Every structure is written in C-alpha cells, then in structure tokens.
Amino acid sequence: MEKLRYSQWASMIYRKVFQHRYVFGLLLVAVAAYFPMFKYLPIYDYADEFFPSCYFIIDSLRNGILPFWNPYQTMGLPIHGDPQSAVFYFPNWLFVVFSNYPPYYWSLYFMLHAFVGGLGFYLLSKHFVQENIAAFAVACAYMLSGVYVGNAQHLSWIIAVAWIPWVLYTLLNLIKNPCFKTCLALALSASLLFVGGYTGFVFVLIYLCIALLVWTIIRSVYKKEYQYIKKTILWSLLSVCCFVLLSLPAVISYIEAVIYTVRGTKLVYERACAGLFTVQSLISLICPYLSTNPNFIKTDQSMANIYMGIATLFFFCFGIFKAKNPLLILISIFGCFCFLVSFGNYFPFHKFGFDYFPLWNMIRVPSMFRLFFIISVLLIAAVGAEYFKKWISKPYFFYALVVFLLFDLVVNTQICGRKTAFNTSTTNRQFSQILKTAPKDYPIPEKLTSSEEIYANKNYHSFWRNLGIYEKKIEWDSYNPFILKSYDKMLQFYYQNEEKLILPVVFFPKVIMQDTNSRRLSTDTAFCENNKHIGNFDDAESTVKLQQFVPGRIEFHAESNKKRPLVITQNFYKGWKAETSQGIALEITPINSSMTAVWIPQGKHQISLYYHRPDIKYSLFLMFGGYLFVFFSLTYSFIRNF
C-alpha cells in the first residue's frame, strides 16, 4: 500500500508537470539563454547604480535598519524617494532570508524576472490564441527580446518589462470577468510594476490601460450592457484603491520627491530626446549583433535592440491579416504609435506626445517606447503562429520553426549579452572576494570622499562608482540620477571649477554668513539663506565627537560654551530630527545650501540626529499587510481551481 501511495503521488506530480510543461519550458529557456550571468559580472549601470543600491538595502535590513536613508551616496539621500532604488519592491526583501547581496545574485534576479515576464506574456497571449505552442513561442521571444538583452544593465527597466504583461493580462481578465479576484490580481501586478519598475513605463501603460477600458465601455454602451458597465467601472475603481494601498509608501515618497529633486520637473525637449531609437537601429530586427556597435547605430547600444527572432517576423506576416480581436487591434495601433515615438525627434510623433500627453514630458529615454511595439508584434505573431499551424499540411514544419526560433533567440542572447548584459573580463567570484574585505559593521567616516579615491586604494575591477556604499564612506560626488535640487546647487561651484569638496563629517563653523550662491566651502565659514541665523559663533573650546554613524541615525557628544550650529555633511531633507539624551528637541536648519545644521545648546550634551519618517514606516506596514491579504486570497482561489 505504501508503494502504491508513492506511485500515485509520482503519477500526479508527473501529470501536473506535463500539464504545465510550457511554464517549465519557459524557465528552461531562460536558464539556457542567460546562464553566463552566473559567472560574469553585470555591466555598466547595473554595476554602477543598481547593484550597490540592492547591496545597501539588503545590508541595512540584515542589520535591523529600515533602508530609508542612504548616508553614503551623494552626501546622503532619501533612498525611499528614488524610484529606481526599488526600496519597496517586495522581492528585494526576500534576499534577507538568505544572506547579504553577493554578486551572483544579480544573475538569479535577472533570470527570474525574465521568466516572470515570459510567463506573463504566455498568459497574455492566451487571451488571443488557443494554441499553447504559439503562446509559448512568442513568450520565449518576449523574454529574450531586444529590450531584455539590450537593457539588461537597467534593473528598473527589467522589472517593468517583467510585470507589464501581467498588468495587461490581469486587466483583460478584469474586462472579461469583473470580480474580486481579477480586481486584486490587477492591483497586485500594477503595484509590483510601480514600486520596482522605471516610472516612464508606468506613464505610458496608463494610457494603454485607459484606452482598453474606454473602448470596452463604448462597445458595451453600443450593446446596451449597462449592468456590465457599472460592474466594470466599480471593480476598476476598487482595483485602483487596492493598488494605492499596495504601493502606499512609494506613492507618498515619489510625490514628495518631485518637489525636492532635479528630475521632478518637466524636461526641456532637447533633453527628452536622449537615448532614442535610430533608423540605423532597425537592423536589429534581423541582425541584433550590429546594434551593439554604437558607431553604426548612432545611439546608445542599450537602446537599439528590438530583435524578436527571424521566425517571429515570419509568423507576424501571417498574423497581420488574421488579427481581428478589437482589443488586439487597439494594442497594435498603440504599439505602432509608440514605435514612432521611440525615434524621438526623427519624427513629429514624439514631440506631439511630449506636448499633449501629461507625464510623457518627464520621460528622458524615447527608446523605452519600443517595448510596446514589441508587445504588439509578438501578440500578432502568436495569432499568425496559430493560423500557420492550422493552415500547413505538415505540422512538423511548424514545430521545426519553433525549435529554430528558440535556438536563434538563445544564441543571439548570449552573443549580444557579451556587449550589453555581462562583463566577461571579471567574474562574480572575483568581486565576491573583494566584497568580503568591506566592513560588515558601521565604521564612523572621518571625511567626505569619492569613488575615485576609494578605487585608487582598492581595485574594484569593473565596479567604479558608488564604492562608498561597500566601504561605508560618505561620497560627495557619487553616481545617481536621483539628485536633490539643493545638493545640485551646492556643487555648482565645484563642477564649474573642477574642484573637489574636502570637509570632515561634522564641524563647528566660526561664522555664519547670508548667501544664496554656490561657493567654495570650508570649516570656518558656512552660508545660509535666512538672515536669522547669521553671526559669529567662534568658540575655541567647542568640541564634538562622533560615536555612532548608521543609516538614518548619527550620535555624537558635543560640548560648547555658547549656543552654536554644528554642521553635518548630510543633505537636509524633510524628516531629520535631533534631540539630547534628555529628550529635548533641537533646532535643525539647512546650511551651505544642502547640508544639515544642528543648533547645539550651551554645555555638554549627548545628541542623536535621526531620520524620522513614521508616515513611510506605517504605510510600509499597511503595504505588507495588503500583500499578505492579496497573496492568501489569490492562493486560496488558485488551490480551489488546481
């Protein structure tokens, strides 16, 4: 009887695996295509920006610190307000269970997001085709497409590309069957896209989702399905409310950051045309390797790849005359328009969207629009593949085409990946050995530094920016597009004169002067815009000693014969609080344009300066509570139907 039970279990597992063979097939294809990433380091922006950010988040959480303030990057920044940091992206937090963030995790991270995107596209395709193999083929083409391979260095892009098919899939489910389950599924996928992905994709996707809903409602009005319209609108609004709950800390942080950051305003049109898709880049449709040559394509090599496989184009030619689903036609029209927009100022469509579509004037990289063209082409190709399989008299030719497509995609992914995904000159193991020498605790930094100075003393191989995060040193000029306006203003003098900012972490200035201009800074004289704080504060006997310096909290002992300002080389931002060991709150003001000044009272005091954001903290708890509710609700529904 015991053996019988084991055989029954084995038989059931086999049946389930076979039933979901296309899902496992997608995972195998992703591993086959991207396995070199397990060996080699990531390239360019992933190495410089995204990997250090993930490293900081995981390191903070493992030390019991909520990663709201990064004290090492650009002289301290509210990392929770940086959309590209993915602080609130729940999958990031799962790494805490295992260990710190070693280099080889990036490959696992990327591969899983490729699989998630492929699975989402497989399900999305099933809205328009019945043939599983057709949906599987285009799903493989999606997760090995030019956006994944070309933009492998842009983690926020990869997250967005992974979840966009899920948003469209769950939205179409909501349109088909407005109910509680589809409402939650849409909210969950949209929140994962928003808190982890590049916000430019969110801006564009909003328009596509609105277009799909409006078309559905117009069609229902024509058919006089008023009850369905009411139901669809109500569940859609509830889904929006659930989305806000599941994204609440990110929503609060991003809205706030718009006020304080350089990128929070409408772009000058010329700056919005950087990173466009050029006419020469069209060669990537048939030969993606040529798109890795910047001299030929006349643009950044990460912005030039739209390869989807030669066989995909063949299926597309069949499907373009057979795609009759109104929603698919709408998606295709939108995709074609986005493709024209991706060329930037080559054509007038980008300028039209920039001028008349709200939020589009904040998107800096026109080439990102090409993703929606790829989605539309692949959905039509799925229809064409299904029709071709039925039309051809010998099905084995169709299967041979699918095998050729997979082989073609895997080979081109590995060839192009050497230029746009991974760095074959340095291995993950080599960099792991370097990271082992980085401090595990939180040493007290003595002065401002830069990645160049750290690199000169310690070879970080292909990582050359934001090294202060590993060494736990404050960098005054690290790399991050998320820049506070006050910080940018403070450094204008240093940028213009090509000078380095050299200051200790804390110091007592002797004189406070009123000035609104950027100028050379020193420990003797500080500047503020408010004449209320100007004066002579020289006191030779004043002393300060740093005792603790961790993300979001600085403790020090100060002694002074008079009330005077103490300058801390951390950016001034909403949320900083200071108090003595007796719980007496101290005044905090901006100084030197962007630094933080704590007004020390007369006498000897133990003082704590901390980043206090209860609104972000409690909204984070609400978000995780919402995730648990959605997870158990959808899991229960899945088990019932399994």
List how many beta strands DSSP finds. 13
Report the biggest beta sheet as strand number plus sense, adding barrel if it closes: 4 strands, antiparallel
Work out the strand percent.
Answer: 5-15%
- Strand line-up in the sheet with most strands: 3-9-12-11
Structural class: alpha+beta
Whole-number tally of structural domains: 2
- pLDDT averaged residue by residue: 91
Please tally the helical runs, counting DSSP H or I stretches of 4 or more residues: 24
Helix content: 40-55%
Outline, from the CA principal axes?
Answer: elongated
Termini gap? 26 Å
Spans of at least 5 consecutive residues whose pLDDT stays below 50 are none
Spatial extent as radius of gyration:
27 Å
Tell me about this structure.
This protein is an alpha+beta fold. It folds into two domains: 2-425 and 623-641, no CATH class; 506-611, Immunoglobulin-like, CATH 2.60.40. 52% of the residues lie in helices and 11% in strands. The protein is built from 24 helices and 13 strands. It has helices at residues 2-19, 21-34, 45-62, 90-93, 105-125, 132-143, 146-150, 155-176, 180-196, 199-222, 226-246, 248-260, 294-297, 310-319, 326-341, 349-356, 370-391, 395-420, 428-435, 451-457, 468-471, 485-490, 492-497, 614-641; strands spanning 40-42, 422-427, 506-507, 511-514, 525-528, 535-536, 543-550, 553-560, 564-571, 576-580, 588-591, 595-600, 603-611. The strands form four sheets. Strands 3-9-12-11 form a four-stranded antiparallel β-sheet, with no helix packed on it. Strand 7 and strand 8 form a beta hairpin. Helix 14 (310-319) packs across helix 17 (370-391). The longest helix has 28 residues, at 614-641. The two termini are 26 Å apart.
